[in-house]
Amino acid sequence: MTEINNPRLSWKTLGCNALKQRKRKLYWQCQQNIIQGQNSKAREKCGW
User: Quick check: 30 and 46 in contact, CB under 8 A?
Assistant: First the structure.
């Protein structure tokens, strides 16, 4: 409930959730690239 009362905190939480979703999407795209055989490029992008 504190997140609703504190607008800065809730905005932070929303931002973090959006970032997590974007990272998940990027991670999934990287997985696809690796499956498709673009190993070194995908690893660089993903920081592996």
Answer: yes
